[in-house]
Records
---
Amino acid sequence: MPKRPVEDATGAVVWVCCTGSIFWFGLEKIRETAGKSIRPSILSLHFTSNMIINTICVCGAGTMGSGIAQVSATAGFNTILYELNQAVLEKAKMSIEKNLQTLAEKNKITLEEKEKIFQRVHFTTDIKECIAEVIIEAVIENPETKIDLLNQLAAINSNKVIFATNTSSLSVTEIGNKILNPQQAIGMHFFNPAPLMKLVEIVKAEKTSDLVVQDVTGLARQLGKIPVICKDSPGFIVNRVARPYYIESLRLIEEAETNFETIDALLESAGFKMGPFKLMDLIGNDINYSVSCSIYEQLNNPERLRPSFIQKEKVENKELGKKTGKGYYQY
Ligand SMILES: NC(=O)c1ccc[n+]([C@@H]2O[C@H](COP(=O)([O-])OP(=O)(O)OC[C@H]3O[C@@H](n4cnc5c(N)ncnc54)[C@H](O)[C@@H]3O)[C@@H](O)[C@H]2O)c1
């Protein structure tokens, strides 16, 4: 597997570190001398992982894919962002540039770092260019689409490639069992917005190898995230716990008890960062509806989690939230 490219002499030392020939004490010394010229996450890179990761390919450049690609490039990885829809890809490119520019203006990164990070992302609509050590798929929440894509990628990549799915609710085991090399498939569930949210749920499927779990847990740390290992159960942890937040709020609207603005205002005043309707608009009403349906079906249709016809209407009317300019609110 190719070595991670090093950008300067300090990077070369990091590479030596990753072979394991320098002890932690040495690493700390390098950190001291390297000062701020290299990110701690890059320095700790090869101590948390069994494999050398040079390139990460993110598939789907929508709400999540775009953010995950930014995270990956910021952590120093060569990043491929693959998307079917050219217009979505262009939008992702502009969004990543804008986010990095904002960070530079806030002095969180230098302009030079901004340029370097941006240059690390290769934007493409050509699947043949999706060659990487780790593939993180963030396409629509549909098992057939994900399985089909991963199998296309398996055909052109090495059999060591890790397939991480960002699914919010689908069974990682079912996805993994239908692709080549199921031991390489794992859930890597980022949260929205990916550059800001620290948590990543790592979902071990039935056949995921322990080595892949270790690698992906290490990778999540290298990306500056906090990995939490979860069972492959419907909605994992966060989406299972969060489901009633949306469904019960929608019930109040169905029953005409109040309106969505009031629910959001009340819950925000009670301390929630975002009311459920604002949050659904941020997530995307199509994705949130798919996740609601998937969790409901996998749990054998409990009445308390029955998806709302309002969600269905939003999807049919293409009122998907922020990404289409209109959801419950206008953007
Ligand atoms: N939106 C959220 O808050 C959120 C949070 C965590 C996880 N997720 C999960 O992440 C995944 C993506 O969600 P999203 O909100 O980014 O969706 P999105 O609709 O914003 O983006 C999905 C993108 O995938 C593209 N796509 C579809 N099929 C493709 C293919 N075969 N190859 C390449 N691109 C393809 C679409 O054109 C679209 O741009 C879903 O599995 C979702 O459950 C979403």
Note: Strands lie at 55-59, 78-82, 121-124, 134-137, 162-165, 185-190, 199-203, 226-230.
---
Amino acid sequence: MTQVKHSPDFGLSHVLSLADDDVGAALRKGFHHFVALQRLMMPTASEWYPCGGYMMSPHSGMDYEPSMLAKQAVLFEACKDAKTVLEVGVHGGHSLLLALLANDSSTVVCMDIGAYGHTLPCVRYLQSQFPGRVLYIQGDSSAILPLVHATFDTIHIDGDHSYDGVKQDITNSLRLAKKDTIFILDDYYDGVERAVRDVGALEVIHVPNCAWTNCVALLTDAAKDAAKDAAKDAAKDAAKDAAKDAA
Ligand SMILES: C[S@@+](CC[C@H](N)C(=O)[O-])C[C@H]1O[C@@H](n2cnc3c(N)ncnc32)[C@H](O)[C@@H]1O
């Protein structure tokens, strides 16, 4: 059985020394949730190690990873004013926890292919702690995203990190965006970077300087126009359907 190291406090000392800004305060307030998630992840370590998450890396073992604070802050900020968040790639629920801590009244629709046995228990834990705020769909994002009919204030893409996988997730989530939707793409290197560039609908506006960095992106002007047209078409279709139903 794979045992991943952790200190007795799971890295709480790092969190206690963070500045008292929004993300620092939230991480302190929510640290017990992080520890609960880590405990749920331990039994399946042989399935997932060394795949990291927003709060841990192979380097930190099961402990909180302070060198990723800047990307945690970026996701937290992007979810602060978001009423609706979409997440692809849940794993142990670290980024999901950040999104939930960022705004007390948001809802998060999230999905994961379920590659690891702990994802469902971690989601169930967060659903119990943040009632009514997490809708989880287990399956392949390439099949699920086309079935989603809603728009989101923030879209976090952190699932299949291959070039083709990210390209497909970006393409499929464009129709779920509004003109001011904030996109966060994790592990902004290699395939992810190329996929963002090749899809061409997103403009990267910030890349924090930290380990395993993410990026913040917005729709380009051309993509905003396309989103507006799609929303108009959808409204027209809905009106036509309503008229047909009434006749
Ligand atoms: C890097 S982990 C996500 C980390 C997570 N956001 C966190 O902070 O802990 C990537 C996750 O994406 C999932 N995944 C991979 N391919 C996927 C796909 N095609 N559709 C949905 N989820 C996928 C994996 O099962 C894994 O749990």
Note: The chain has a mean pLDDT of 95.
